[in-house]
Amino acid sequence: MLTPELTRLLVAVAVLALAGVAAVWWRRRQGRVTKVEREGALSSATLGAQRGYHATFLQFSTPMCSKCPPTAALLARVAGEDPRVAHIEIDASERLDLARELDIMRTPTILLLDGDGVPVSRISGAPTEAQAREALAAVPRTGTDYSI
Prior knowledge:
The chain is an alpha+beta fold. The chain is built from five helices and five strands; from the N terminus they run H-E-H-E-H-E-H-E-E-H. The chain folds into two domains: 30 residues; 107 residues, Glutaredoxin. Strand 4 and strand 5 form a beta hairpin. The model has no long low-confidence stretch (mean pLDDT 87).
């Protein structure tokens, strides 16, 4: 028969094991890049900033997000290496209409737009530099390199 002490110990071990599994699951989801199939493009006017000619990192952030500032710095650095790539950061709390339309449920969330402004991939959570570069490399060639 189980004593109360042994029962408490088994419950504590089970809770710790469950917490460990949840932590591993959460960590694996951070920065995961998924393909997006969405109709319609997002214009520079809608975004409030100029899109890139080849690609745009569209980052949704909130003021209370601790991972958003380092993510913004990372994406700005990667985008800054190519004049055809832009990084736009949008405060999801100020643009609830756009966040709802694009199903933004957490921050940071990054949509990678092609040259026409069509979302081609989505990064949930803070990406690593390798994940950001890999997503950028997978953007199909669209749009133009010329501006008028």
